Structure formats: C-alpha cells, structure tokens
Amino acid sequence: MTEQSGQGPALDNLSTExxxxxxxxxxxxAANVGESAYAEADADREAFWAEQASxxxxxxxxxxxxxxxxxxxxxxxxxxxxxVAVNCADRHVEAGxxxxxxxxxxxxxxxxxxxxxxxxxREVCRTANALASLGLVAGDRVAIQMPMLPEAIFAMLACAxxxxxxxxxxxxxxxxxxxxxxxxxxxxxxITSDGQYRRGKPAPMKDNTDEATAHTPSIEHVVVVRRTGSxxxxxxxxxxxxxxxxxxxxxxxxxxxxxxxxxxxxLYTSGTTGRPKGIQHTSGGYLTQAAYTHHAVFDLKPExxxxxxxxxxxxxxxxxxxxxxxxxxxxxQVVYEGTPNTPHEGRHWEIIQxxxxxxxxxxxxxxxxxxxxxxxxxxxxxxxxxxxxxxVGEPINPEAWIWxxxxxxxxxxxxxxxxxxxxxxxxxxxxxxxxxxxxxxxAQRPLPGISAKVVNDAGVEVPHGSGGYLVLDQxxxxxxxxxxxxxxxxxxxxxSRYAEQGFYFAGDGAKYDAxxxxxxxxxxxxxMNVSGHRISxxxxxxALVSHPTVAEAAVVxxxxxTTGQGIVAFVILRGSATADASTxxxxxxxxxxxxxPIAKPRQILVVNELPKTRSGKIMRRLLRDVAExxxxxDTTTLADSTVMDLISSGLxxxx
Length: 655
Ligand code: WT7
Prior knowledge:
- Mg(2+) binds at residues 545, 547, 550.
- Residues 539-617 form the AMP-binding enzyme C-terminal domain.
- CoA binds at residues 198-201, 317, 341, 531.
- The protein is α/β, with parallel strands linked by helices.
- It is built from 21 helices and 30 strands.
- The strands form eight sheets. It has an eight-stranded mixed β-sheet with strand order 12-11-8-6-7-14-15-23, sandwiched between helices. Strands 5-4-17-16-18-19-20 form a seven-stranded mixed β-sheet, sandwiched between helices. The protein has a four-stranded antiparallel β-sheet with strand order 21-22-24-25.
- A hairpin with a 5-residue loop joins strand 4 and strand 5.
- Bound molecules: 5'-O-[(S)-butoxy(hydroxy)phosphoryl]adenosine.
- Residues 269, 316-317, 392-395, 417-422, 443, 506-508, 520, 523, 529, 532, 534 line the site of 5'-O-[(S)-butoxy(hydroxy)phosphoryl]adenosine.
C-alpha cells in the first residue's frame, strides 16, 4: 500500500464535522434536476446517458450507447457524428439566441468585450478558416499557450470545428515544459500572444514560447495574438499575427461532422513519474457529460443566469467549465483575464456586482486567500445575485466552506463541492444544489449516471464509517480514452491496481461517513496538490537534480494553510558545492525555469543524508514529519536509523 502523500487542512475537523444544510424549498422546487434522477439513472445507466446526449445536436444518431468490449478503451455513442464547435456556438444562433451574450470578457487593466453567440460563431468560423489556410487537417495537433483572452476560446473551438486536436499549455508553464508537450504531441502550430497582463503589468509571453519553439521541429507556424503591444522577436515565414491571419478570413465556415470518438484534445497532467501524461479526450461522450453536469450541478438556467468559473483555460476546469460545458448549454458567462487582487482585493466581488453573477465556481485555495484578506472586502459589494457557489481542485476544509457560505453566499446559497480530475473530464462526485443536504467538506454522492466506490486494498467496498481508496467502477461518457502515445502507461496507472475488478483507480483516499456520503482525503500517491494544481514530487526532484550543484533531492508536500500543500525540498549538494545564503533562491529559480513558477518549492533544506529504506526508497513520510514540524515517526525500516537525527540536528544548527 502506498503511503498517504500528505493531508491538507481539509482534514482538520472532518471527523467532528456534522452540520447539514438542506436546500430551501424554493430552490428545490425550481431546480433543473431532482432526486428522481438518481433512480432513473440507476435503472438504466445507458438509457440515462443517451437521454443526456440528446441535449446536443447530432448529424448522425449513434447506433450503440456504450461499447466496453475493449476495456479500458471505451467507445461512447458508437457511430454517432457531431461537430463540437457547432454545438457550442452555431446551434444557439439557429435556435434564435444569437443576440444572447456568450462571454462578458473582463480584461485585467479594465478593458472589456461583450461577445454574443452570433459573434462567437463568426469568430470561430474566421479562426477555423485561418487554421485551415495553414494546411492543417483533422487529427493534427495544435498547441495553445495563451492568457485568458477570448481568442483562446475562439482558437479551441476553431480546432474542434476542424477536428484538430488542441493541447492547451497553462501560461505559467516554462519554455522547457511547453517544449516537451509540443514534442510529445508533435504539434504543427502554436497559438500564443505577445504578452499578458499579470498583477497590473504587461509580462512577456512570446519570449517564453520562442525559447520553446527554437527546439521544436514539428512547429510550422506560430500565430500571435496582440495583447500588450510589447516588442517581440519575429521569425519571418513562421510567425503570423492573429489579426492579419484571422482578420481577413470569411466569417462563414461549413462545418463537417466528426465521429463521436474523434479526439478533441490532449491535456497534460502530472503523474507519479517525472514525465507529464497527455490525457486524451474525445468528442461525443465528453461534450455530453460536460453539458449535463454543468446543467445539473450548477442548476444553470441559460436565459437568466450569469455564470463565472475562475479557472484558467490551461487546466481541465477551464476546458470543461469555461469552454465546452457552458457554451454547449448556451450560457452567459464572465471570463476574467487577471489576478484576484488587481487592482484591489475586491476585484472578484466588483465583477460579480457589475455583471450580476449568479453562479460562481472557484477553488478552496482562493477562498482561503479571500478569508485572509478579510470579510470586510466582499462586505462592500452587493453579492445578492449569487445563487449557487462551487468549489473544485482539492478537499475544502469545513472552515473555508462555512466562510464561503456565510460571507459570499449570505448564509443561504447552496455550495457544490465537485470532485473530478483531468482524467474524468467532467464532474463525478458532487451535491446537486436542489437535492442534497450539503455537508461542509464532503463531495457527498456520485452524480446520477456515475458510479464510484470506496474500497480497501483487496478491492472490497468498505463499510459506512470507514476509509480506503476511491475507485470508479463503471465507465462514464467523459472518461479519458488514453494517454497520448503510451497505452501501457494508461493501463498501468489507472487499471492495473484493481485489474481483476476492472476498477479505475483515481489515486485519492476517501471515506464514507455514517450516511454513506463520500469525503475525499487527498492523494495517496506521490502527487502533491498546490493551490489545486497537480505537481508530482518526482517532477520537482528531477528538476532539482538537473542543477549542477545538486547531488540528490527529495520532495514532499507539507500542509499549508493557504495553498493546501506547499512544496518542501530536501537536497544534498555535490561534494564541491557549499550551501550559502543564495542556494535556496538559485534552486527555486531553477525549478521555476524547468517547470514553472507554480512548482517552486516553498522551502529548500540542505541536508547531508536522506532517509531511505534498505531497498533505497526515500521515506517521504519521515521528511513530511520534519517539514510539518512534527515528532518524527517510526524509523525502524530505515537502512540507517541515525539519519533522521542527523537531519533534525543539522536543520536545528542551520536555523
Ligand atoms: C485531483 C485532480 C478537477 C479539476 C481540478 C483538478 C483533487 C479535485 C477535488 C474535490 C477533493 C479534489 C483530487 C483529484 N481534487 N477536486 N472537490 N475534493 N479533492 O484537476 O489537476 O486533474 O487534479 O484534484 O486529488 O485526484 P486535476
């Protein structure tokens, strides 16, 4: 059994938490989805998903809902054909909603754009014509590294329209990280911007992509959106300004329908080894579950609601709950470019007040940051438009949950704590706001049509009141279809642990409470969760040892009051190197350059030894004890039992 990688603040008072908050009768009355959905889905799961797929426009009806004969490779809506972009744009115009606002875009410096569904459709068509003019054909990969601009959404949908596979790389990832993702997917085109606004200042973006594309032979063109107007280097023939390429195109484009299993995108995420995995998603099943869960979990009423998800499109949350789910549902949403404290700490609340946001979806780490800034800040704004609040990315601690409900939700707004992963594609476990009596800190119950279980090492479901591992025991429409170019790793990572039972192993610890509700307990593998971002310990360790002064490194995730976990690194320097005041900074900057600023260790401790078992495995559990200032636990399996004393005393004398 793998040891628990660390437990965030979520666990503080889980065992004593017993408050329950049922929805109001009025909410339940008007809710999109009621209690009966669970039984309906249980009675016939495939019929249930077929009904949900009918929310979309299909060019050709499927002949079979699910083909699981080649498990773990699923086929959903076999034989069905659709165009994902048409489903997210054109069909709303055809239904008479062309004048409805799709996107209220808010730029960090205060500029804004309002984009209706009619305009969205025209922009997507123009962009699709532009990409087609570069010779891209269905199945080709397009990399996108961009800030939160409308063009990022146009680009993703234009890819979908042409059957191109997009690979969006978070703007905060380094050139080295971008390069390896471009290489892995052999992307032909990269779409980026000259720069981005971050914390009130223009910051470069193309500089970063230039460093990557200097070494990526597969890239034929770099398309550059003008955002900050800053100077950029230019490679004639390869680089193209978005305005010039897209601006001159026709805004009409005849879309082709693609197979339900046509690949839609690849999104890289950290695993337990150093190399990120390209998670593959396809079209029909993904869009079905994205649309259904957005409708059910957020109770979206497209005619009335103004929805806002604060994620970045570089993560799966941005893909499913900014681009595909909301747009498939014809929602009106806010898309915000910048940081939450620019130019002031009330920026989010100001945007909610200004646009009358009714549904707000964010991450626990941000909620805890808002708590730190103080309740008086949201107190200055009118937040009465809010009617559903969502949380995603890590277990939410009951204290933050209660603050969210009281301070942002006026003590009455339902909170949906949504558990899912890049791999699941869409929400899997969550309360339904009109049905569930919510519990602070629990994601509670698999959605209708979804099955999840908490099992022990042997794969046997644990009784209520006990903990174990979370597994998904039935296929679901938006499940990953593989890891790009690595079938073996796909089987190995997710399907080998419970091969006999055919369960998908999620990598999370979980428990049932006495009512059978699910409480997520954090990762059980060597994956850390920092501000809701997944980072593997091995990835940071490889970055550290790639520095010439480092001989060995061990990384652990230590509980952090704001970010959930913080990265703490223990390093052994090479013989000739000595630690001085600049060592930690040098190494932190090195990790930022190798992976990105999000992976910078919070703390770097120089040590002479690392605790290892006799087989040479680093005992991270003991290092975590040190990192969290705890009494060091059982050291009897250490090859050298004095190592921990050496580390502890060394740290004391250097402190
Ligand atoms: C991991 C997936 C899903 C989009 C954001 C992260 C953790 C996510 C919750 C939640 C407890 C959660 C899990 C999961 N996680 N949401 N509501 N409660 N834990 O996507 O980067 O693929 O990370 O995030 O540990 O395995 P991701």
